[in-house]
Every structure is written in structure tokens, then in C-alpha cells.
Write a structure and sequence with these properties.
34% helix; 20 strands; pyruvate-formate lyase- activating enzyme; OB fold (Dihydrolipoamide Acetyltransferase, E2P); five-stranded mixed β-barrel
Length: 451
């Protein structure tokens, strides 16, 4: 049968849907693009914003317009939280929960249109960890590897623990073998991912610092990026390992903040103080001034007065950060915050979101400007035939454009960052005498020293 997928949400969701796709391929089914006609359509949902319901309905409608007779299954975080609501969407044949989504071929005997929607959603007790990995770019040079899932935190605005269950992790001895597979597949960058990545802990008590040390012990051509890590879990020993000599890690952290107001942080039940966050960022930049630091911020949380929003603006403006991911607060069912006083009008939320996004653009341009004149390692990702430019990312998360032959090998290469034009960084390819080790040599090292 022809199977298509549509993914909404984070990189962890993307990795999960990739694993499910491989299950169907192993059973002999053909994976086709979402835009093509299919016999089975699976929609992987997200619950971070208030648009979860509207997004899901829209995708189902698009799928049925192309494939009116297709079996439509909806899975993911929103499916776990609101199965009955999804079941009311016309054309949905099955709603599949978090615990069930990796068992779809076994749970559904016939992928046919149903008169009544099947709801296959159970509680999240004793949910196992499922390894997932997926390509993160068109050039297939960067992969996302999920090593942790779920969350034990209970921030007052968040539904993720209810949608994904408690924190759980990949077994430590499986990490090296998964990295070997990615290396053999030709990837040169791996993004370590998880719902609460810093909370990694396996059955033997190994923690995230042990994963970092394992990665640095591997003689590999791959470089590693930490997707996002909670500030209270970004311990000094982790920073030290990332910045150590001959480290395989990119000088790049993405550290959620959510608010620069201490009062709002307390209402959110975040596990750190604003002053701690300042010290953390300044410590990182004192050790590596070239390190990129990204920040998550939520705008318009209940009780965020104009004064408290100004605290956040000033807080972020004074920090040596590189960019922001700005989220407009949206009320989520079954969260404590939905009952809080001091609701911020939606129009005010939009205005504040725009102001922070403007600050983000300024911060990014400042950081990019600070990197002009440096030589960086870039992995070419995509080539534009119209202008003859390649595009890729430096190890410290600067997107750079440069001239090179269309048949350039997509391997790590040195690029001199020369100029900025309209917020874009342009560079020149430098001569490189470094020869990459063969995959055969790398495989041998893994087998002898790691596995």
C-alpha cells in the first residue's frame, strides 16, 4: 500500500514519524510524499499551541481531497490529550495514542475507511522508550537522534507531560551503535534531541554528562549539537565537556528561559531564578565568546503586566545571546495556568511577540557581525542553481552562503566569513588539506573501542 505522513511540531515528533515510516517500509509498503495519492495517511500532531485542533482539521481535509478513499490515522501529542475531539473530525478513521503509535501495523488489521472512528488511546503508565532518528535537512548531512522522551516537570503552562508521559531514555549501550548507523549513512552532524534532554538517565544511572563523555571519546568525523537543554540541567561539568579540547560538540546551546521576570518564572513553576540564568549565560560566553546561545521565551503569560514584560525585554537585551524563539502564550486545557488571573488580551500578546521578534533579529545580526572575519567549518547543505551559492551552517550556528562548484562534496569544509548583506552572511571557501577518514576506518574504531 502507499503510505504518506504529515508531521506537526518538534524535531522529536519528526524523529518518531520517521521510525513509524520505517516500520511500514519493512512490511513492504511504499512511502510516498504527502502531496501524492495514498492508501494510508498518518498525521502526527502537536499540542504546543492553541491551533492544534485547527491544524489537524486542515491537514485531514487536505489529505482526503487528494485521497478520498484513504485510511486516515491521527497520532501524537494532541491525539493523546483530545482523542474524542479528534474522533469528531470528518474522515478520521483512527485516533492513536502515545503508547500505541509505534504499534500501528499490529493494532490495525485492515486499513480501510471506518463508519466509526477507532480510538486507540491508553494511559501512559510504564511506557517504554523508542529510539528514533531522522534526517534534518535536504542534503542528508545532519540527523536528529532522540535519546530521551517524556518529562517529569510540571510547568503550569505545559501539557507535554500529559501527552508524552514520564521521562525515559535510550539505554547507554545503544547510543554508540545508533551513532555508528548514522555515520555509516553519511551524516556529518548529529543533533541530540529529547523532550527534556538534560534529564537523560538510563537504567544503570548514566546521565547526560556520561553521554557527552562517550561522544567525545569516539574518533568520529561527525560533530554534535545539543538541541535544547533546561538551564537547571546545564551543569558546569556538561559545559566543561562541551568546551573541552578536541570536543566533538558544537559551541552552541539552546537554553529555554520563558520569562525574564522572576515573578512570572515562579508562576510558571520554572526550576531556576532569573539571576541564575544570567550567571549561566555569562559563564558560557566568558569561556567561549563565539558560542551561539538561543533562548525560548513565552509572551503574554497570565499576570504579565507591561512592567513585567519590560523586565523581560531589558533582561534579554542586556544578555549576550544570539537569537530568540518567541512563543505567544495560548491557554491549554488541564493546565493550572488556564485558571490564573491577569489574562493578557490577545492583541497585546501579538504586539509583545512582535517586539521580542524584532529584538531577536537585532541580537542575531549582532552575533553574525561578531563572526565576520573568522574561519569556520561549514557542512554544505543545499545548492541554488539560480545564483550558484551553497548554503550551510557553521559549528556555532551561523547560516552562511558561499560560491562553489555544484558538484562540491557535502563534507565539512573551512569557510571564511567575509560580509553581511540584508541579514545574510557570505563567505569564501578556503583551501583544506584535511582528509576525512573512510567510513571503514570509522566503523572499525566503533567496533574495537566503543561497542
Amino acid at each position: 500500500m502507499k503510505v504518506s505522513f504529515y508531521n506537526l511540531g518538534c524535531k522529536v515528533n519528526l524523529a518518531d514519524i520517521s521510525r513509524i515510516g520505517k516500520q511500514f517500509e519493512e512490511l513492504g509498503h511504499n512511502i510516498v510524499p504527502f502531496e501524492d495519492k495514498a492508501d494510508i495517511v498518518l498525521v502526527n500532531t502537536c499540542t504546543v499551541t492553541h491551533r492544534a485542533d485547527a491544524d489537524c482539521r486542515n491537514i485531514v481535509r487536505r489529505a482526503l481531497k487528494k485521497s478520498p478513499d484513504a485510511f486516515v490515522g491521527v497520532l501524537g501529542c494532541y491525539a493523546q490529550l483530545q482523542p474524542e475531539q479528534i474522533a469528531k473530525i470528518e474522515g478520521v478513521d483512527a485516533v492513536i495514542g502515545t503508547k500505541e503509535k509505534f504499534e500501528i501495523p499490529n493494532l490495525i488489521q485492515k486499513f480501510e475507511k471506518n463508519k466509526e472512528t477507532q480510538i486507540l488511546v491508553s494511559s501512559l503508565e510504564d511506557i517504554p522508550f523508542h529510539t528514533s532518528a531522522v534526517s534534518d535537512n535536504a542534503g542528508r548531512t545532519r540527523a536528529v537522534l532522540k535519546i530521551q522522551d517524556g518529562c517529569n516537570y510540571h510547568c503550569t503552562f505545559c501539557t507535554i507531560p500529559m501527552a508524552r508521559g514520564e521521562s525515559r531514555s535510550m539505554e547507554y549501550n545503544e547510543v554508540a551503535s545508533e551513532l555508528l548507523k548514522l555515520s555509516q549513512s553519511g551524516y556529518y552532524e548529529v543533533v541530540l534531541s529529547g523532550i527534556n534532554l538534560g534529564d537523560y538517565k538510563n537504567s544503570d544511572g548514566k546521565k547526560f554528562i556520561d553521554i557527552a563523555k562517550l561522544i567525545n571519546s569516539i574518533d568520529s568525523n561527525m560533530r554534535f549539537r545539543i538541541s535544547s537543554i533546561e538551564p537547571n540541567l546545564l551543569k558546569p561539568e556538561v559545559i566543561e565537556e562541551v568546551f573541552s579540547n578536541d570536543s566533538k560538540f558544537c559551541p552552541h546551546f539552546h537554553i529555554p528561559l520563558q520569562s525574564g521576570s522572576q515573578d512570572i518564572l515562579m508562576k510558571m513553576k520554572r526550576r531556576y531564578k532569573a539571576s541564575y540564568y544570567v550567571d549561566l549565560v555569562n559563564n558560557i560566553k566568558s569561556q567561549r565568546p563565539d558560542c551561539a546561545i538561543g533562548v525560548d521565551v513565552i509572551v503574554g503569560f497570565p499576570g504579565e503586566t507591561e512592567e513585567k514584560f519590560a523586565e523581560t525585554m531589558n533582561f534579554l537585551n542586556d544578555l549576550p545571546i544570539s537569537y530568540l524563539h518567541v512563543f505567544t502564550y495560548s491557554e491549554r486545557d488541564n493546565t493550572p495556568a488556564i485558571k490564573f488571573d491577569g489574562v493578557v488580551p490577545h492583541e497585546v500578546r501579538k504586539l509583545r511577540t512582535a517586539r521580542l521578534r524584532e529584538l531577536s533579529e537585532n541580537k542575531k545580526n549582532e552575533f553574525y557581525q561578531s563572526q565576520v572575519g573568522t574561519e569556520r567549518i561549514v557542512i554544505p547543505e543545499t545548492y541554488n542553481t539560480d545564483n550558484g551559492l551553497w548554503k550551510g551552517w557553521t559549528e556555532n550556528y551561523v547560516q552562511v552562503y558561499f560560491k562553489a562548484e555544484p558538484n562540491l562534496k557535502q563534507i565539512p569544509i573551512p569557510i571564511k566569513l567575509d560580509s553581511i548583506f540584508e541579514s545574510k552572511v557570505f563567505g569564501n571557501l578556503q583551501n583544506s588539506t584535511n582528509e576525512l577518514k573512510s567510513l571503514k576506518e570509522e566503523k572499525k574504531f566503533f567496533e574495537l573501542n566503543v561497542l
